[in-house]
Amino acid sequence: MSSDPPTGDESFEAVDWELIDGDAHPVSWNVRAFVVGAGLLAVGYAHQRFAAAPLPLDWTLSHLDWLTALSLLAVGAFVVVPLARNLRTTLRYWGRFRANRLGVASLLYAVAFFAVGLIGPLLVSEPKLDVLYGYQPPVGTAVDLKFVPSCLGRVADGRCHGTWRYPLGTTYSGKDLVPFVVFGARTTLQVVLVSSALLVPTGVAVGLAAAYASDRVDAVLMRSAESLQTIPAILIYLVLRPWVGDYRLLLMVGVFGLANWGGLAKLVRSEALKHREESYVRAAESAGADRRTVVRRHLLPNISGSVLANATLQIPMLVLTEAALSFLGLGAPTVHSWGQTIALGIRDLGTHPAWWVTLFPAVLLTLTVLAFNALGDALESTLDPRR
User: Fold this and answer.
1) In this structure, what CATH number is given to the domain that contains residue 241?
2) Which ranges constitute the DSSP H helices of 231-278?
3) Taking every pair of C-alpha atoms in the chain, what is the biggest distance, in angstroms?
4) Which of 9, 63, 185, 328 is the least buried, fewest Cβ under 10 Å from its Cβ?
5) Domain assignment of residue 42, given as a range
């Protein structure tokens, strides 16, 4: 074939796949950018962990913070940037997506949730003990004075009214509820991001490998996926939990990410097998495209919608599982969690009189689960080519 790049007049069969996807550009630039960014994060992590001088930051990043940064880098490189580069296609899908009002509202909530989880901890300090101002009610509400050691707000008719110093009220020990909500959002966000960053690549890689492998390898991979689906990730976490000490949240996201990819792998395999029979894939193979080219240029773009929708629909399960474990006292005791805060409000004196300690995190937890469920359904409907 000619070494000149193909022109618009050339037929599909005349495309020189080795020229387009050969050694000249073996790796796409966003992959290289991700590798460079991951390398910089690795250098920063190594400096913090092993160097004598600390990083020039006002806080120390945990292992999970570094993994969260790496997950955000992956989302930017493999989701946000491709959407921005393929603006025409993105706008076409957005036109279909915005017709779903519940989906748009869920997307706005998801953006707000990510903003609070990422930026909020930088603006809010850890809750401080102040028993003198225990059970201060939220702004706009009041509680009987007999439940309040000392009322910070206005007192009227024997009731203590809330003040803007504690807009969401305080706990039994006088701790401001706002940090509990904000740091709980960060914990939930970390679970979602890091678990998804482990789950999605693993499920996609296994599914594509099964679709192209021999029957024996395909059977082994699919039996492995089915075996993982029969063993609850929460059971694996409970077995390993006593051995990890202060790294229980890290263990949680690791188990959630590495033990929940079975369903996604089966979905990817099914989609890949279906698309392999399409005329455009067969034409590409007949024209000389190798397997890597077919997967990268044809299969991955066409299954990405199903992968994104499936990953979004798994987020509510991750959120609820983390909250349930924290509520039962089986989560990470050194981090704040919405489930842990709900249990705190119930454990002190029940939901009465300090109903707000339980209500606000419970409402946020419910909204987060409902929003990502609705968002996943909307994405599935929007990205479904049959629609």
Assistant:
1) 1.10.3720.10
2) 233-240, 248-258, 262-276
3) 91
4) 9
5) 29-86
- Taking the alpha carbons at both ends of the chain, their separation in whole angstroms is 40
Cis before 353 (ω within 30): yes
Task: Give the mean pLDDT of 290-302.
Answer: 78
If asked whether residues 252 and 324 sit together in one domain, one would say yes
Query: Per the domain annotation, does 142 fall within a domain?
Result: no
Has residue 206 been placed in a domain?
Answer: yes
Domain count across the chain:
2
Q: For residues 98, 99, 103 and 104, what is the CA-based torsion angle, rounded to 10 degrees? A: 40
pLDDT in tens, 134-156: 889 999 998 888 888 888 888 88
Task: Provide the whole-model pTM.
Answer: 0.85
φ, ψ of residue 155 to 5 degrees: the values are: -110, 125
Residues 53-69, mean pLDDT to the nearest whole number: 77
Rounded percentage of the chain residues whose pLDDT exceeds 90: 40
- Note whether 271 and 383 are within 8 A (CB): no
pLDDT in tens, 238-250: 999 888 877 889 9
